[in-house]
Structures are given as C-alpha cells and as structure tokens.
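Blackboard transcription, Thursday session:
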Amino acid sequence: MINTAGRVIPDTITGIAKVKPYAGPFAFVPEGRLVGPKIRASKPKSEKLLKSIEQAIDASGLQDGMTISFHHHFRNGDYVLNLVVEAIARKGIKGLTLAPSSLNDINDKIIPFIEQGVIRAIETSGGRGKLGKLMTSGKLDKPVIIRSHGGRARAIECGDLHIDVAFLGAPCCDTYGNINGINGKSACGSMGYAMVDAAYADKVIALTDNLVAHPLHTISIPQTHVDFIVELESIGDPKGIASGALRISRDPRELLIAEYATGVIEYSGYFKDGYSLQLGSGGASLAAAKFIKEKMLAQKITASFGVGGVTAPFVEMLDQGLINTLFDTQDFDIPSIESIKNNPRHQEMSASFYANPHNGGAIVNNLDVVILSATEVDVNFNVNVITDSNGTIMGASGGHCDTAAGAKLAIVVAPLLRGRLPMVLDRVNTIVTPGETVDVIVTERGVAINPLRKDLIANLSGAGLPLMSIEDLKQIAYDLAGASDPIPVSDEVVGVVEYRDGTIIDVIRKPL
Amino acid sequence: MGKLLQPGQAGTIESNDIIVTVAPAAEDGIVIELTSPVIKQYGNRIREVIADTLVSLGVTQAFVQANDKGALDCTIRARVQTAVARALQEGGI
Amino acid sequence: MFAPGNNPGKLQNAGVYGADSVIFDLEDAVAITEKDAARHLVYNAIKSINYPCEVAVRINHIQTPFGRDDLRVVLPAKPDLIRLPKAESAEEIRMIDEIISQAELDNGFEPGSIKIGAAIETAIGLRQAYEIATASKRMTFLAIGGEDFVADLKTSRSKEGRELFVPRSELLLAARAAGIQAIDSVFSDVNDEEGFIEEALMIKGLGFDGKSVINPRQVRLVHKVFEPTEKEIAQAKRILAAYQEALDKKSGVIALDGKMIDGPIVTRAERVLAYAAALKR
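(Written on the board underneath:)
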C-alpha cells in the first residue's frame, strides 16, 4: 500500500499486528481505553531494597520473551542499560524486546548480547554508532520500531507497547522508592521519559547511587509506582550525563542559519508578547536562542512559555524574565539541572504531557514556534532525522514530528550541503516528519516556505530573507555538489517508522 | 606527455578536500584507488572527474590514490592539476 | 571579504555571507609550498561556482616568482578584479595591465573587463599613491594595508589609530584625485566587535568607501556602519526633491530649510540613496 506521504508500506510486517498506513497528521481517530499495570498489593513494613541487580531481575519475574524498558536521561553517561542487560544475559534469559526511550553510542556495549539472542527486538526513538548499524542490518527477529517521544508515550498508554519490567536509573531515590532527578552525583534534571514507564510498567525497578532516607520531598516518580530498589556504586558518568553549559556556535554558517531562522520568527506574525517557543540543542538552535533573545529585549516581548530539551541559553532567558515558564522533558547541561532544581517557574513534565497526541492535549498543541534540525529534507518538505544518506540508522525521531504537528510555525534548519552531500533532495531516504507539518526550511543559502502556508509567504516577503522555492534551493545544492547516484537498497524491511499516532509513515529498508 | 616519471601529491585531510597522489603506472590507462565517505553517492563521479582532468592534461598512464573528504568537482580538478604539475617538476612530490 | 585561496571549504562558501566582494587570497594566506595548489583551487572555484558578488584575486607581488604564475593560471577563469599587494610604483600596475590585456585577448574576454585594485602598504607606496591610482584605466580602488604599513613605519597599531591617520588621509586624497575608491584595512581581532565598529565609523567619517574584512561576522558590521539611517535617507530624498523642483521651475537658488543646496550636497544625497538601494539588494 502507498500511504498519503507517498511511501510504499508492506501490507504485513513481522511484529506489527495491524499495519495502519499514515493518512495525515490528524487523520487517525483512536478507539478504546488506556491500559494499566498489573494490580499490585503491598504490605506495610515491606522491604523494597534488594542487594543486587540479579536479585532485582529475579524479583521482577522477568522471563524469556518479555519487554524491558529504560530511559535515556543520562545520554552517553548512562551505565544502567548496559549493566542490566549484561546481568540479564548472565542469568540466561533470552528473546527480550528492548524498549528504551532512546539509544546512544554508549550502548554499543550491548551488541554482543543482541548477537547472543538475549535481545531479539528493539523499539525506540533512535540509535547511533555501531548499534545503529546493527539495527539497520536486519539481524533482529523483527524490524526495529521507531517512535517519537509522543508516539512512545501513546503506545505505552494504550497498550501497543506493553512493558513488563522498567529499569529506571534514579539519581535520587528514597528507601521506599520515591524518585527525583535533581539530587545526587548523577543528577539529570527532568525525568520526563521515565515518568511514563513508571506509571504503566508491570514491574518497576529503581537503580540508584544516591539512596536517601524516606521520604523525599521533591518527587518526580512516586513510591506507588516503584516495586524494588537496587543501590549501585554509580549509575552514570556525570560528565556524560550533563555537560558544562553548551556554548553558542562560532561557525559562520551556523550563525547565518540562526540569523535567518530568527528573521523568519520575527516576521512570521507569531512573534508577539505571550508567544511560546521550543528550540533544539544543535549549534544553529543555540545561536538562534541568542538572536531571538536580542529581538525579544529590543521589542519588549516576553514568551508565555518555552518547551525543551532545555539548555543553558534557554535557562538564561527564563532567569532574565524573557520566558515566564519552562516545560521540561529533558535537561542537557548543568545550568539547566540547577534551574529545574531551584526555580519554580522551571517545570518538569512527562513525555505524555509533552507530546502524546492521544490525551486531553499535550503542550505541543499550545506551541507557537519550534526550531528543528534534520539529516535530510526533500522538495515536499518531508524531513528525515533517523537515517543518514547511506540509509543507516544514526539519529532519533525524538520530539520532531510531535512538535512539527503541534506548533503553529515549524522551522527546520540545516546547512545546504553536509560535506558534499546535498541536504535538500528530491526524496529523503526515510520520512520521519511529513511535509504537511513543516512550514519553513532554512539553510545558509536560502529559505523556502511551504506553499501551503500562504500567510507566511505574505508575511515574510518583506523580511530581507533570501526566499526561494524549495526546488530552487535543491537546484543550488545539486549545482554545487553534482548529481548523485542513488544508494542501492534491498526489499528487506529492517525498521518501521511510526508516526506519533501509531500509523506507519515509512519503513527503513536494508541498504545493500 | 603521457607518462609520468615520479609521483606528485596535492590536497589535505580537511573536510571538503581530497588528497590526490598521482604516480607512474606500468601499463597504459588510468587506475584509481578511491576512499570517500560519499563513495556510494559520488564514487563514480569522483573517478570520472579525476580521469577527465588527467586526460585533459595529457596524462593517459597513471596510478592514482585518492582520499576524499567530500570535495566538490572543482576542488578535485584543482588537486589533480597540482599533483600532476608537482610530479612533472624535478624532485617529484 | 578575504578568503584563503588554499582552503576549498572556505572558497566554496565565500559567497554566502553577503560581502560585496570576495577576495581570494594567493598571497599572505598561502604558504610558499602551497602557492601552486592555491592558484589551481582559485581558478577552478571561479570557473565552477556562481558567486553572487564581485570576485577578486589577491595575487603575489608581480616581482615575486609567484605573481606572474598567479596571473597566468587565474586570469582564464575571468575574475572581476586583480588585487596587487604592497604596490609601490605605477610601473607595477602597467605590467599587470599588459598581462591582463593579453589574457583578455587570448581568452576572448571583453577588453577592459578585468579590473585592478592596489593595496598601499609602505611609505614608498604611499608617496606614489596618485601615480599608482592613475597608472591604468583598470584601476578601481586604492586600499590601505594596515598591519604591513604600521610595520613599515616602525611602530605598532593602537586603538585610536593615530599612527595611520596621515597614511589613511593621504591614500584617500590620492584615490579621490584619481577618481577611484578608497578601501580601509582589515581589523584582525575578530572577537572585538566594539573596536571594529569604532574603527569602521572613524574611516567612514574620513570618507572611505568600504572596508576589507577577514571574517564573515564582520561583513554585517560594515554594512551596519555604512548603512544610511532612516533620517539620512528621508533627508536625501527631500534634498533631491527640492533640487528637482528648482530645476523644473528654473529658479536660480535652491534652498531647503533655510540652507542653500548646491552641487556637492546634491551629489552626497544621491550617494546616500545609491548606497541605501545597494544595501537593499
């Protein structure tokens, strides 16, 4: 079948009960009810603290073929996922589905366990490095399922993704299982992704290197969701968890892109007092934060809220009163962690509050402006953030399609060429975010507005931006780089890209 | 012309550049050994540009090693031109 | 904006930053061992890439072993302008003029289409500034090379730039006498935005037509400094309107707001509007 994004989707796919093709960002109407974890009974004076990961695995009742989950709040400083998978392997348990909120380079360590059959399926937001290559190789029992942050929350809450055991790294955990992410040597700030897993998994194991006396007074994940606790020497590397304040780029190309993106925002018609904003964590986004701040100061504009992925430049705007409040699903650096800890206007939110399309209304629905990055875009404004130009998984869906769908103005920034490769193509390798939700593409050589947005075309015409059609932008890229040969791809489906509503927007086929 | 007597090299490992080493070959023809991060998309094109440039310089017998880091056609041509010019000087590289 | 001729990445992106002219440098930016490579890179870049602005090449001095090779390789690509560093005599300009004329002939280019600009970087050069400026019809500007000049004067650069005051003024005088443009020197501290703007304002006040920059971030700063304000544009329009009205009425004396408007004031008003229009592009 061909979905409305123009992609060929097989009628049946291993591991997908019913293939629902993408039919538009808001076309699918869900039915039924939310699910819940198995009912637990707990007695007073029960002891949740166990002596080791092995004991916790036993206590959880983990068996062959079950689904386990983790959060990725520790990014490349995470020890938990690797440690737990290794312990599971030692116990001889096999055939598991791994469903972390995302995967990073540090998780390359679990490749041997995948090859040994401990893990036979993966459902996540993305993958990088050698693990990304493995995910693209078709060596798992079924295609990898790629979901956005909002899509994962949706899937968990409606039962599409059933988690048997969630292993959650807890920077601060009291002896009865109340957890927060703001205290301790492995502090990570918001625990937005973990909050959903904790509420819906049948069994929840907290792993902490900072066990404190009960009760904690700032609680992100309550004791009512936590079954067992394991205390470890270290659950992560602080340097990998949070960097020093992310600095603004010096690269003149990124600065130029940031400047044009800021110009788009300024003249879009949305730039007024009380607007709301989300920025990515890439170089151009951070630079844009600086330019937008200057414009807000000059024009006396305050944002009613900001959404992140939070970084220091965003926190600075909060501190200076340029943003009233931040809704935070993930903190990237130390200033951001300090901010969520100390500033009541900096609020933690779950991945569901952030981006789930099937609840009473996620915050992305209220968002005015978002700046997003891309690995590739095409002349239909479709965006790829998951595979590179060779078709290998090396990125993550993240909140991309969620914010693009929700925001009134979705801006995608990218250099026109990466190395020799044009970033504006006739056809992206993999669609993650459909063109109908992408409004403007900004490169250092030109800015293209989606023809569907006649209002933006009118507003931006006097803004002094290098406006051009997306076709012209593509032509500039190809004139510079030269026409490329298409990469050969087999018919074998190794990955399924779910849109946030559970429909299938594209598949990843194994590169030859 | 047609035959080189010693090798010549030009280029750097920086992005958007290509290191081209042009050396004498035993048999007639141009043999190109290419590494490139975009070999699937541009491998054919890179080889074509190297060969065309050599031919336009009158070189029909050479062994070329090319280590590409995403160079555009104009950069490839320039590096081949310089490598050949250096090979033709006294002293080679 | 200068771009080093031996850097493919910078050459291919040079046109993106809005500079009015990109200067591909074969001289100071390029090590002696790479002079051959740089001229090939520049030749191919100019031939293949569509730059949205004037393309200039700073060759090595015509009396070095490299200068003539630079011209031989680069001219067939049809750069818009050849920039000679450390110019010291009219003879140097004439030599380059001859070589360019021959290249225009050999390549079928329109005669006179390739221009020349000269940078004055020594006391001797400054003494000959007018002669250099008038040595060829191709001469488009005189530029001052601040760092080298200051070394030649045997002093160092200061913030206020007093040591360059006379050289700048003399250069400007020579350029104006010859009817060509005067371009100011580069400002090497890329991180000192305030200092850059101060210097740019000062040389704009002296009468310079523009400034050379070494970094894309400085392009915007120059345009900001040289951009006429809304007030200046409005006033220029009023002056030209008053002038036109007086012409139509054939009245002898033209006045606006109680002040006389004569030739120089009208010319300045036209200049302001021309500059504003050019910046809109």
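Lecturer's comment: The longest strand of chain A covers residues 489-498.
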